Amino acid sequence: MSGSELTLGTADLLSLGNASEPRSLNQLVTLATRQVRACSGATAALWRDGEPVIMTASHPDLPELMGTQLSYGRGPVLAALEAGEPVSVPDMLTETRWPEYATAALLRGVRCSITLSYRPETRDSARDGAGSSDADGDALTLSLFGARPRTLETGQLDLAELLITYGGAVVGNAADYGDAQRTAQQLRDAAEARTLVDQARGMLMQTLGCTPDEAMRWLRRVSQQRNIRVADVASMIVAGQGVDSLKPRRPRRD
């Protein structure tokens, strides 16, 4: 999906009100599967008072993974709701925390997953400066699934976190227009950065004769050593700056 398509998709999310929550969740799932690298399927759920009231999925068998978690009272979605932070399962074959969930996932061709949760700030807490929300109130969860192990990592999910925050507008206290516009700009910037990184990786693969993963590690090393973003390194390469001038420095030996 191009940056312009992403903009149109997120604009659709913004235009949908609470009366169109199922359609909004479906749009959120569509954007996640198209935009997040290595995501081969996704589910999104709207929760009220600790119960899922609306759920949508990119594939018809994925809702059964939610049913398994609800039946056993445990799983990554429930853990993400409780912890308020992403919960990752790098490889279903070695997962021991939720064996029922792992077994159900493997039967459906899922080898890894990551789940994000979002709780909108309540109006009272925002007014009081508390910046928190009622644990039993509304919440949104987004689960991403990969067909290969360890392909969905928390460090690669900036875009997914932006998407679930944006999708949180369908949960009760919708963001005001200005906040939504700022988020839309962040999404556009993220899509443009991804395009640059993909272009730079292709150029590095051709120049250095390396694999896609090796090219990505090359970009990250330069980013860390020069203290600039990976997207900025990619932009320099795409703009024509020589690879030799950006080559990662070898660590000094004492």
Protein topology:
Elements: H1 3-15, H2 21-35, E1 41-48, E2 51-57, H3 63-72, H4 76-83, E3 87-89, H5 99-107, E4 112-118, H6 123-128, E5 139-146, H7 158-167, H8 177-208, H9 212-226, H10 230-238, H11 243-246
Antiparallel strand pairs: 1-2, 1-5, 3-4, 4-5
Written description of the protein model:
The structure is a single chain. It contains 11 helices and 5 strands. The chain has 254 residues and is α+β, with helices and mostly antiparallel strands. It has 2 domains: 173 residues, Transcription factor LuxR-like, autoinducer-binding domain (Beta-Lactamase); 55 residues, Arc Repressor Mutant, subunit A. Strands 2-1-5-4-3 form a 5-stranded antiparallel beta sheet, with helices on both faces. It is globular and about 55 Å long. The N terminus is likely disordered.
Briefly note the CATH topology name of the largest domain: Beta-Lactamase
CATH level-1 class of the largest domain:
Alpha Beta
Which regions contain 5 or more consecutive residues with pLDDT less than 50? 1-5, 14-19, 122-135, 172-178
Q: In the CATH hierarchy, what is the superfamily of the largest domain?
A: Transcription factor LuxR-like, autoinducer-binding domain
Tell me the Rg in angstroms: 20 Å
H and E string: HHEEHHEHEHEHHHHH
The rough form would be described as globular
Keywords:
5-stranded antiparallel β-sheet; 11 helices; alpha+beta; 2 domains; 13% strand; Arc Repressor Mutant, subunit A; Beta-Lactamase; 254 residues; disordered N terminus
